[in-house]
Every structure is written in C-alpha cells, then in structure tokens.
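Subject: complex prediction, re-run

Hi both,

The earlier run crashed halfway through, so I resubmitted it with identical inputs.
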Amino acid sequence: MPNPPPAWVQALKPAGPQGSELLAHERAQSNVAVDRLAELLHTKAALERQQRILGLLQPEKVFDKSQNHSLGRVDRIQRSLAKGKRLQQLAEQYKWTTEEVLTANELVGEPTPYGLHSTMFLVTLREQGTPEQHKLFLERAQKYEIVGCYAQTELGHGSNVRGLETTATYNPDDKTFTINSPTLTASKWWIGSLGRTANHAVVMAQLYVGGKNLGPHPFVVQIRDMQTHQPLENVYVGDIGPKFGYNTMDNGFLLFNNHKIPHVNMLARFTRVDKETNQYVRPASPSLLYGTMTWVRSSIVLQAGGVLARGVTIAVRYCAVRRQFQDREATEPKGENQVLNYKMVQVRLLPLLAAMYALHFTGRGMMKLYDENQNRMKAASQPDQDNRGAGPEQLRAGADFLADLHATSCGLKALASTTAGEGLEVCRRACGGHGYSSYSGIGPWYSDYLPTLTWEGDNYMLTQQVARYLLKSARAVLSGKAPSNDTCQILQSYLDRREKGASFDVLEVDSDIVAAFAWRTAHLTFEALKHRDVENRSWNSLLVDFWRLSTAHSQYLVVKNFYEAVSSPQLAAAVDSETLGLLHKLFRLHALHTLEREASEFFTSSAVTTRQIGLARTNAVMKLLDEVRPHAVRLVDAWKIPDWQLDSSLGRYNGEVYPDLFRRASQENPVNDLVFDPYPWNENVLKNGAPKSKL
Amino acid sequence: MPNPPPAWVQALKPAGPQGSELLAHERAQSNVAVDRLAELLHTKAALERQQRILGLLQPEKVFDKSQNHSLGRVDRIQRSLAKGKRLQQLAEQYKWTTEEVLTANELVGEPTPYGLHSTMFLVTLREQGTPEQHKLFLERAQKYEIVGCYAQTELGHGSNVRGLETTATYNPDDKTFTINSPTLTASKWWIGSLGRTANHAVVMAQLYVGGKNLGPHPFVVQIRDMQTHQPLENVYVGDIGPKFGYNTMDNGFLLFNNHKIPHVNMLARFTRVDKETNQYVRPASPSLLYGTMTWVRSSIVLQAGGVLARGVTIAVRYCAVRRQFQDREATEPKGENQVLNYKMVQVRLLPLLAAMYALHFTGRGMMKLYDENQNRMKAASQPDQDNRGAGPEQLRAGADFLADLHATSCGLKALASTTAGEGLEVCRRACGGHGYSSYSGIGPWYSDYLPTLTWEGDNYMLTQQVARYLLKSARAVLSGKAPSNDTCQILQSYLDRREKGASFDVLEVDSDIVAAFAWRTAHLTFEALKHRDVENRSWNSLLVDFWRLSTAHSQYLVVKNFYEAVSSPQLAAAVDSETLGLLHKLFRLHALHTLEREASEFFTSSAVTTRQIGLARTNAVMKLLDEVRPHAVRLVDAWKIPDWQLDSSLGRYNGEVYPDLFRRASQENPVNDLVFDPYPWNENVLKNGAPKSKL
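This time it finished cleanly. Structure:
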C-alpha cells in the first residue's frame, strides 16, 4: 500500500460544515426513540447478540474487508473460504446457536463457499433423510467431515423441475442406482458450494425403476475424494465462472458418466425403492415440503426489509451530508443546501424508507402465519385431549390455510425482493457520482443480492401461482363454497358492493386505503376470471394480466400488514406517541405513493377518483415528505446496522464521508502502487528502469 | 487453465433441438431485409469499416477478452493500458480517422486509461487554446508526448460547477498563476485518466485576479515528471479506487499545495489575464461551448440506441434458444416452449427492441439539427453573398434555435441514457439465471454504462433545464411573442384546442399518437406554469412535476422523431415494403407501450380516454407483440454487432449458447485451477501435500 500522504495533505479538512456536525444536527431535530424502536424491530436480545459477535469478528485480520472490491475472483474466493473456516471454528468454540451463526454471516456480509452446505445441504438431509441416513450423512455433515451442496438446477433447466435431464436408474441386481448425464444441458449448473468446495452433493435426478420414469428424486452422491479432494472417476465438476456478483461463492457444474451409488444414498423419508420387491413406494406427505418452501419465501420477505434498510441508511445519511447548490428561495440562505432537502431526492428515498418498514412488518406477519400453520399441522397430526384425531373439517381447513399461505408467500417473495433489489439501485443513484464508487457500499451489495430475484422461484414465474390461486378463490366465491379466509372475504365484499361502487376516502381514513387496495385486487381478479373462463383466452395471452394481478394483490398484503402493525396495541405500548405517529405517516407515505404510482389501475377499477389521485400526489404525498424529512436520519439509525457491516464511506454513522473516501482511495487502493509508463511507443505498461520519454 | 474435459464429456451435446437449428428457423420465418436495414442504420461504409478493423484486432493476443471478468483491478487496468497503447500504435500505423479510432474502441468494448486524454483533454485544448497554446500543448498531446485529462469535478462538488473550490490566483509580480486546494473537498475526484496515466491536466479552478473571484477557468497544469512519471512536488495525485464498473479506467484525485504555473498555461482563447495591464479580459462568445455540450448530449442519444441494441440482441437470441415448460394449450405441442413465445417475456423485450430503433432515429435527428445549427452559426458569423452580415432578426432566430436544441438535448440525454441503462438490466433479467453470469455479456456492460446516467449532466438535474425552457416558451406563447419552433407550436395548438378537447384516435391513426404525446406535454407545461406563476409555489416543491414534465416532453420528441423517420421517403426508398411495414409496427409498439405505461398522465390530460388506454393495452400492444415476434431475431441481426464485440455466450449469432457457456466455465475460468482444502480445521485453504481429512 502507498505511503501516507504528505503533511500538507493530512492537514486538509473538508469545507464546513463537517459531516459530523450535519448529522448531529439531524439527530437533534428529531425525537424519534431510536433505541426503543430498534428493540421493537429486532428485539433486545438480537441487538445484544449483534454487538457481541461484532466485537469478536471485527478485530480478526481474516475478516478484513478493505480489499474486497479490488481483488480478482481467484483471490477473493480463497479469502472467503478462509473466512468460512474461521467462522466455523468460532461457531464451535463459542457453541453458537443458529441465530448467532446467521448474525456472524450477516456481519461478514458476503457469501462464503460453505453457504450452501450449511443451509440447503443440511436442511435436505435433515428433512428428507431416514434416521439411518441421518447417522450416515447428516451427523458427519454437521461436523464438516462431509461438505455438501444441493444440486438441482441444470444448464438447460431452471424453474421447470420436471424437465431435469439427469437420471438415476435403479439396478435391481445389485440394489444400486446409476446416476447419469445424458446430454450437455443435463449438467448441474449454478450449484453453490459445488465448484471447488463440496465432496458430496444432493443430486436431484429423474428416478427410473423398471424402465418407468417416476419424476425427480434426491440422491446423496459423493463427488470428490475425501483425502485428495480430486473428482471421482466418471464425475466432471468445476466452477461455472465469474458472475455479476456472488463471486466469493463457487457456483459449480457437475456431470456424471454412469456413476453408481449405493441403495442407501437415495433420500428415503418420503419415498423409496423397496430392496426386497424392487418396487417404488409412493410419497407419504408432500405437504411438509410445501411448508419449507413457504418458510424460505417468508424469510426472504423479512430479509428484504433489512436489505433495503442497508441501502436507505447509506443514502439518507449521505444525502444529509452532501450539499449542492443554494436554494435561492430558502428563507435562511446559508451556503449550499443539503441534498436531502430537495423534493426530487426525497421522493426517491423517503418512500423507500417507508417501504423498508412495510416489508419488515409484512415479513414478521408472514412468519407468524407460518408458525400458526406449523402448530395447526402438528395438532392435526396428533390426537387431541379427548384422544380424537383431526376430523375431515379440520384437515380441509388446514389445507385451505396452507394454500392461502403458499400463494401469499409466492406473491410477497416476488414483490419484496424486486422492491429491495430495485430500491438498492435507486439508493445508489440518489448518492450521485459517489454512489458509483465501491466504497459507497451499495453497488457490491446490490450485485450480491440480485440472485434473490431469481432463486426460490423466479419473480415472474411466481406471479402465475398467485393468479391461479386468486382465480380459484374467485370461482369458489362465485359458487358459494369459499373458505373463510381473507382472500375470499375481499373478493366477496367486492361482489357485494360492486354495484353501488367504492368511494373510499383514501385521503382521510387509513383503513379506507387498505380497502382500496383490496378492491383493486378483487377487481383485477374478476377481470382476469372473465378473460379466462368466459372469453376462454389462452393462459399465455393472460400472463401480463396475471403479473399485474399478483403485484396488485401483494401490494395489498403489504399495505394491510403495515396497517395492522402500526395499529396494534403492542406497538402503541412499545413506543411513545410521537414515534407512533411517525410510523403512521410512514404507512400513509408507503400506501399513497404506491397508489399514485399505480394510479391507472386504481381508477379504472373505480376504487378512487382521478381527483383523489391528483390530491394524493400533489398534496398528501408532498406533505408527508415534508413531515418525514426531519426524522429520516433517526429512522435509519433505528435499524442499528453497524458501520462495519455497511462497509460504506458514504453511510458512516458519524458522517465523516469525505475523509473516509479519501483515506480508502489513497491508503487502501492497490492500484496506487503501480507506476505507469504512459507513452504508447513503450511496450511496457509499468515504469521500469531508465526514463523513455521522448521529451 | 484446466486440462480439456475427458472424452465422455466432450461427446455430450445439448438436448435437441440445437440452438443453431432454432435460430436458423427464426431467420427462415422472416423476410426482413437484414443487410439493407443494416446499411440504413449504419451506412455501408461503417459496416465495412467495422469488419476491417475487427479483422485487425481480434487476432491480437493483447485484445483477448477471456479473463476480463475474473481479474482484479490491478491486473485489469494494466492490461487495459496495454490495449490502449496497441490501439494508438495501430492508429498511427494505419493512419486511422477519428471514426476508425472510435470503431476500434467500441469493438474492444472497455474504457482504456487513455480514454479522457483522447477525448476531453484534446477537445478542450483545441477549443479553448490559442494558436500559441496549440503549438505548446495540443501538438504534443496529439503525439502522446503529453498525456492529459480534464479535471473539473471535485470530491465535494459535482453538478454545481460554480461551487468548485480549487483556486488559481494570478501573481502580477511574476505573471504566474498559483493553483491551490484549500480544503479536502477541493480535491479533484472522478477524473478519468488522471489516477495513474496523465502527466498533465486541464484543471478547472476559480480564477482570482486582484483579489476578485472571476469564476471557474481552465488551466493546463503539469502534474507528473515527464521522465520518472512521479508526481511533481506540491502535487498529490492517485487513483480513487474500485467502482461498480469502469474499472479499467484510472479515475483519479488531485490536490495542489500552492503550485505555480506559467502565464501561458491559462487557456486563453475566450478569456485571459492581460500581462501588461494585469487585467482580466472578458469572454467573447460563450455560445460556441454551448454547442459542444449539445453535440456531446446528442451523441449520447444516438449511442443509447446502440447500447440498448447490445442487450436486446443478446436477450432476443438467447430467449429464442432457451426453452422452458410446455405450452399445454399450444396447437402443436413439441417439447418445451421457446421462452420468447411467452407474453411475459415479449412484453419486456419487444418494446425495448422498438425503443432501440426509436432512440437511434432520434439520435440521428438530433445530429442533423446540430449540423443545421452549426451551419446557421457559421453563416451568421460570415458576410453573405451580398456582403451583409447577419441582421438582428437572424441572430435572434439563431439564439432561439440553439436554446430549443439545448433544451431538447438535455431532456433526450436524460431519457435516452435512463432507457438504455435500465433496459440493459431488463434484458439481463429476461435471460433468467444465466443472465447473472458474466458470460452473458450484459452485466459487465451495464456496469460500465451506468456513469452515462450521471455525467454530462445528471439525469435528474437536467430535467430542470428542460422544464425551465418549457415554462419560458409557454410564457412567450401566452404573451403572443413566441418564436416559430416546434415547442411553441405544440403549446399554441393545445391552447387553441383546449376548450373543445382532444379526442385523438391513437388506436387507428399514427399521426394522432404523436399529437397525443404533444398534447400531454403541453398540458403538463401549462399545469406547471400555473403552479409556478399563479400559485407562486417554490421551485423546490415543483421538482417532481418538472421531472415528469421533462420526461413527458422527451418521450414526445422520441415518438415524433421515430414517426418522422418511418414516414420519410428516404426510408421507403431504402427498404422493401414488408420491412417498412414492420418498422411502422415498431413505431406503434414503442409509442402505445409508452402511452400505456404512462396512462394516468394521458387521461388526466384528456389526451385519450380510459377506454382507449384499456384497448391499447389489451388489444393493440398484445397484437403488435404477436406481429413483431416472428421478426425479432432478424431485427436484432440488422444491428450487425459482431460476436467478438458482444462477448456473450448467450447472444452468439450461431445460437451455440450451452457449448460456449460450458467451454468458458471449464476452459477459461482460473478458479478451476485451485484445489480447495474443504475442512474447517485445516487453516490452509488450498490442498497442499499430505491429506488431512479426518475420515
């Protein structure tokens, strides 16, 4: 690294007022109860945990972040494996809980090559393995003796799992399976932790028994030697190359040339091939797996709030420090104006500030529903106090509940991850030129987050499932046989009221805002149903309508969850009335800004009038921006994202933006070790030995 | 690099039908005259030039692109300087014209450290230097004896040039200037070619003469030794570090500690400090510089079409090769369906296909206006045949024309670069999971393109200039003193017709579409004027309205330019009627899709009815997607972007997507040279020596 700058440079300070002064002023002008709000968002225990683990990680050299953005993939992935190893050592040393491991990973802030081992590989073994298989694979995997991955996606096959080409053929003679890749497109692809790290993989393959295809099933397959870590014979495996982000992960490819594995390697909790009869035994209860997907998607919703919070924290703090142009019409002119005072900046950032709260509370709501469902299922599968099992009524209600939860989680996963991903980019651009520097901390994070829009169900594909569910619900409502869930209720009340019209007072009554969003969903649902069932239009021709419908429904769910959260007695008990009032304003800002952005659907459905939309934009939203503005810095402070996690010069808690940018550029930037030879007639690019200038 | 894969892997082919067959089928089903269309878009000479230069560059090892996405910044920037040197050598050897140099740079596809030397540095010397300064600086710079950059932006100052802090104080005693950086935020920042390459800089600094601040002026400052390339004393200079993209450029910082430069180093074509009197001499004709900015922005509009074409070419070809799910309702079921057949994919990609044509023709139109303006100015400054100079009438008309062109170029620069930048990301996501691979070619290009949204006027800032111009025009129209340009005409005809209403037939009559866009602009202009002049609302409170207004106006300009291009006799003469008809459909697709996306502004302005909007969406746009779909591949082929330039496995002309992805992952990916030690209890991350597994 370069020498420290000369004394005359070290003596320079930014032109005043300093960033620290500006942020101190921001914090002084608001009474938001930062600590109480933080505990409400994260719990006291989680905040304490974060501080404790931060104290362990930050001093260790292995976790140094300063070179992350300058290094190439070969260096980065090796450093990341070293981080993963050290994290695992610490986890053993301190006997970390799952939550503590998660916290540590979040603070480190990059995927490590163990990422898929510690999540999907272990989860799949746990959920789909028999006790015998747990002993054989899971226990060793938990100790990292076996390092694994989950190999489903193929080079030619993403969302369509039924189209997978890898085969697993049962051999009745020796009771084994032969795993094979018949084509190049059958190559497993994108598999995290596979490229260089894993020695085992759970491979999803088309099971063939007696010549019959029984669909995709999971198999545990050893792929590398436990000692040399070289691929086994008839296994071709490697890393798939550089990516837009996620470059510290070894996403891999995998091909098999008729590779034999033992009978015990087919994960057999739900389905199996009987060794005695050589017959396939059908699945028992696939709905349990349904539950896992729902859990994963719900956690993506919750996480989306936190992801967005990272970008908004950086952008809000920096826009309070950055000043540009004088406001000649301002009443007290005093040098250049804070960028955060400009309406064009506010209208981009403050609705995202509101959205991060909205997504957080929605994710919480989803998690609660998921827990309810798990308890319900547990209750249904066990005899009750009177020693009776669940009756058919209860089972049907459970299935209805799960179907609703499943559709909800699909739509919200798509909406939340799109909002967070695109929101990060809005935050980055709101930082102006410096947003483009890696030291902003937003760009690298955006790049790493983007896969979330594709995995666990591509965001566009998922919208079809939501639409299918809404159409089904609408048919049930029309036939008078609807279950009593929220979805059917909003469809029913739309039908009841359709003739007399809506006339919601969205500008004055908060619950009317929620009702207007419900109305729009119902309107779009019955429109789509007419296209499908009456006009018999093809599924393909309706995909765009379905996407709009799913988005509308998911926006309704977020608005409803946010409204319920800010209206709950728990919240009123947890924070002071001023903070509570501000959270209500965030709700209105989120809802009315969304309403205005989607204006045309709201008034073609007659949920509101064009006059109301106009007023929502020019009056309500603009006024809310004014009201939220003074509290913006405290509202991001309440998320308590440590500077070390943000890794951002622009988003530093203390506002020392420019000294930090300068320090990193001049002191942590390896490019400054190079001395170029700038003359095109000299072949060498670096200045070596004798001067060669023509002058 | 790894060994070639074993024979059994090499024998594998993708599952059929092959990508080459699918693209051959696509090309067979359309009659679009690819070559004639290509000549129309680019000219025959440009296509020939591209082929010739491609033939020179592609075989040279120095231009190899295979490691671009795996290397770190230190390696990448050195390789890029080597490319820059070699390009300069070739330029001298083959005596390349400016156009040939541009073509070579576009084919190489990355900024090199010479980027700002060869553009802004040379241009500034040329335009703002005296003949003496041309001899002293420009001639040597053209020979690369002097290597320079253009240093305007500072750490604390971007768009607001008047806020720059660097000072240049005139010393009457020895007729020198002292350049100084009084604060840390005065550090020059983001300056391309400065960090490691330049030995000179044009520095924009606040000129002080006799204690008086005369605003920012340009000075030529030597910053590094010509022999050792080390920074001069009292100069602190370096690279600003890693960025979201553009990492092959050494954007730099620069600080001065009272650094003295000779009198001749102030660029003095327009303003100067007289050595005899020690007095500042005022600028002669600043409008010439105005013209340069207009030219740069117009070229960004033209380039935006080409940038978008790159993403659309990749996505359209890949979506024709990629297949997913069966369409169970299709009349001829035959395996999985091409992704391009899904309406949800079409609605994302085909309007972008239309937009790239729209932007291209608009950029062409802008360039033509720019040339007209240059000719007009030249004519006005020279005596005409009758030996008379330009009269006051002509001068005023010229100023009006330039003001209109300036506003147009501001708004279109913002709209075009935003459309291209965001469109690239839409293309990347439309490629599904593989879009995330660097081998898609879209992500790296997107990252490198993003600065265009900020430089040459931040896209949000620019919209204020457009709005200011429209308000001024509206006031002129109301006062009856408007110049006779298109902007004033559309405002006037809106006023004339406002009472009786619009009733444009956008679904049937193409010229009515253009009129509806003009109507919306005019409506928003007079709304904004009312807020400003009647309601006296503050400028800040109207920024969001101004941004909407600028966007609306710029969309009108694109729609109008596209319409004029497809209706022109030149076009009708250049291509067959089938291709011509298709270009008309692209016009309608672009315009109606935009209209539908901005629906609420169109019907609150009463330009169209809600019924028309509904029909535009469900009927017109959907039908146009069907009609354009079969020609999509040929319509991107016509842009003739060579595979080597695209650098994309997904967008290959021959459709061999999967073999190419596989080849690059397995053969060009240096991560596959690493053998990990996967066990967390071993500190080393690479497998060295004796096996250490616990098993």
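Chain A is about 55% helix and 10% strand.

- K.
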